[in-house]
Design goal:
Order of helices and strands: EEEEEEH
Structural class: mainly beta
Distance between the termini: 40 Å
Strand order of the largest sheet: 3-4-5-6
Radius of gyration: 13 Å
Number of helices: 1
Oligomer: single chain
């Protein structure tokens, strides 16, 4: 039997880094705060909530992608895991550009 690599989980949340009340995205799973771009290390595969770490994941770079906009790279403060995720339409564009320039 085939395992799904993506589980839709579009619940709103309060950002563990900046305290912003993050609304659901509406069209796909929200995985990071649109204000500070931080995430939580909750998933092994997107949306599965199977990771045991739970650490805050800091945005470390943003790569422009002609089809997807920006791809964010996060690194976990607790365990050092690195994950990539598509930026959302309402993400702070100034922060995305600063992360792109820091490449």
């Amino acid at each position: 039997m085939e395992n799904k690599r993506f589980t839709k989980n579009d619940a709103g949340f309060v950002c563990a880094n900046c305290g912003f009340d993050v609304p659901p995205l509406g069209y796909t799973s929200r995985n990071h705060c649109p204000r500070c771009l931080c995430s939580l290390h909750l998933d092994v595969n997107p949306g599965d909530r199977a990771a045991e770490c739970g650490g805050i994941m800091d945005p470390v770079r943003a790569d422009p992608d002609p089809k997807k906009g920006f791809i964010l790279t996060h690194r976990c403060r607790t365990c050092g895991a690195v994950r990539r995720n598509k930026a959302a339409a309402d993400d702070d564009r100034g922060m995305l550009i600063r992360l792109t320039a820091g490449r």
